[in-house]
Amino acid sequence: MKNILLLVIAIISAFVLQAQDKNEDTTKIKWLNGKKIWIFKDKEIAQKDSIRKEKKKGANFTHWRGFDVGICALSTAKNKFQIPVNDDVYNINYFLNLKYNRSWYFSFNPLEKSIHLYKNYINIITGLGIEWNSYNFRSNILLTSDSSHINATTIQMDTMPNVKYIKNQLKASYIKIPLIIELNTNNSNADKSFHLAAGMEFGYKIGSWTKRKYEQERTTYKAKFHDDYNLSAFKYGVVVRAGYGGFTLFANYSLSPLFDKNKGPEIEIYPLSMGIAFSF
Asked: Where are the domains of the chain?
């Protein structure tokens, strides 16, 4: 019985000493509305707590994952948006002349993987995304809608009488993978860091179609045709992204032509896009 009593006293003493040690490390005070604030006397404990909070704040260095919104454009291999009229024997200008306020680029990038080469200052970025390109033509042009023919996709004018086009679009969607190098000026806080990224994006076409809306004799018609249109199945291009914190500007330039070789217009056409990115 005596031994049990001594054991109980020893256990109680240990708890008392532990409580005293804790009270030496911290002081509990009451504040407004019954809220409690713990003040750490132990510098090491306070320092660890501060470091943990700093790491949580602004630690998200993902700038590719998110949404990209911008405009689409088309150019020749010589980076021309128009061809001199006397040289345009294949009606290429009809294809290059877009309504930029309705030619939209949209990309959804749900996956991003960062490989840190030097902390957060230098990263290699890859991931997975989907993009949609919508080219809205000013002219009443038509693309050949049966790519199973041997003939290449050609640009033709719609010769139907009394037709007024409201919308005339070529749309294409791709699944894509980036491979870019990103530089950051701040290692610990992405919200206070300038970032610059450059590299390549590789895409595979998963869909293409044309969409037209026009009026004829006071009647509105809509037409939508899904077809390959001899658009290149694979594409690759240069991407540049720059910004501060969560704000990013981007520009994409395709190094591969829009159409398959010898299957599109006589002059090769290259897509490009630019806009604003919203990361998450």
From this structure: 57-279
